[in-house]
Amino acid sequence: MQKYLEKAEMLVQALPYIQKFNGKTIVVKYGGNAMIDEDLKHSVIQDIVLLSYVGINIVVVHGGGPEITEMLKKIQKESRFINGLRYTDQETMDIVQQVLCGKVNKNLVGMINRVGGKALGLCGIDAGMIGATKLKSGDADYGLVGEIQKIDPNLVNDALEKGYIPVVSTVAYGMDRHGSYNVNADTAAAKLAAELGALKLVLLTDIAGLLTDPKDDTTLIQVVEKEEISGLIENGIVSGGMIPKVKCCEEALNGGVKRAHIIDGRVPHSMLVELLSDKGIGTMFYKKKEE
Fold first, then answer.
1. Which residues contact 22 (CB under 8 A, 6 or more apart)?
2. Rounded to an integer, what distance in angstroms lies between the CA atom of residue 57 and that of residue 71?
3. Could you tell me if 148 and 188 are in contact, meaning their C-beta atoms sit under 8 angstroms apart?
4. Quick count: other Cβ atoms within 10 Å of Cβ 238?
5. Torsion over CA: 26, 260, 122, 265 (sign)
6. What are the catalytic residues?
C-alpha cells in the first residue's frame, strides 16, 4: 500500500507543474549517453511522449556524435577534433548529413511513434530553418563547421500547431556557399528555443549538472542566476566542455527563455524529475529579474 501512496503523491506533486506548463513550449536537446544506451533511450522517449500527452509542446533537437564517429570508422576515416569541434571536410559533411538527417533522426521519430507519440522528423535545411556561414575563429580551420546566423521557427511552429512532436537534426544550409554546414546542436537548441518563445530549454548531458567539484556529484549547484555565470567561469567552476553548455543556457535566457536546465541524461526519467517535481535533479539557470 505504501508504494501506491508514494506513486499517488508523486502524481499530485506533478499537477501544479503540468498546469503551469500546459500549452507552453519546452525545447529538449537530446544527446550524450542517453542517446546510446537502449534502456536510457527508452526512458527519454517515454518522458517526451508523456510530457506531450499532458499538453506540453515538446521540441526535440538532437546531435549524434558517436554515430557519426562509428560511420566514419566504417569507411576507415579517422575523426579529427580541433578545440573540441569535429573537423568537417566534404566527405565528413556527407556522412554527418546522412547520419543526422537520416539514421538518427528517423530512428528517434520511429521510437516516439511506437510509444504512442506523434513525431515529425525535420532538419535545419528544411524550409531554410537553420542558416549558417563558415565558422571563423582565430587561425583555426574547422572545414565545413558552421556558425548559425539565422533560425526560422515557422516550420516547427506549424508542426506544433498540428499536434506533432518536431524532431530536429542540426545540419544547416550554407548562406555563403552551395552546400550544408555541421553546426553545434546545443547552440542550435538554444537559438531555436529563443525564436520559439519557449518557456524552457533542457540540455541532457552525461553529468549530474554544474558541479563545484567535477568528480563529486554531491557538489551539484542546483540553481544559478544568469548574472552569476561570468563569475563561475572566471573562478574555474565552469570549465572545459561545460563552458559552451552554460553559455548556451545564457544565450537562451538572453533570448527570452524563462528557464534553462542542464540535467543528467544517464538517470532514467531525469526530465520528469526535473520538470514535474519540487526537488528537481540538475542545474537550473534563470534571470534574476524576469519580465
1. 54, 55, 56
2. 33
3. yes
4. 22
5. negative
6. 29, 32, 65, 186, 245
Cβ-based neighbour number of residue 17 at 10 Å = 16
Phi, psi of 117 (to 5 degrees): -85, 180
Residue by residue, pLDDT tens for the chain (291 residues) are: 666 666 677 778 888 899 999 999 999 999 876 777 788 889 999 999 999 999 999 999 998 888 999 999 999 999 998 888 899 999 999 999 999 999 999 999 999 999 999 999 999 999 999 999 999 988 889 999 999 999 999 999 999 999 999 999 999 999 999 999 999 999 999 999 999 999 999 999 888 888 888 888 888 999 999 999 999 998 888 887 788 899 999 999 999 999 999 998 888 888 998 899 877 789 999 987 654
Query: Do the Cβ atoms of 70 and 99 come closer than 8 Å?
Result: no
CA dist 182 and 13 (Å) reads 41
C-alpha cell at 183: 553546426
Question: Can you state the angle between helices 65-74 and 90-97, rounded to 10 degrees?
Answer: 120
Give the other-Cβ count within 10 Å of 181's Cβ: 31
Sorted by sequence, the CB contacts under 8 Å of residue 81 that are 6+ apart come out as 87
Cell output for 221: 549547484
The residue whose grid cell reads 533542457 is 202
Q: In terms of pTM, does the model score above 0.85?
A: yes
Helices (H), the chain: 2-21, 38-53, 65-74, 90-97, 105-114, 154-161, 185-196, 229-234, 242-254, 270-276
Say which amino acid occupies 79: S
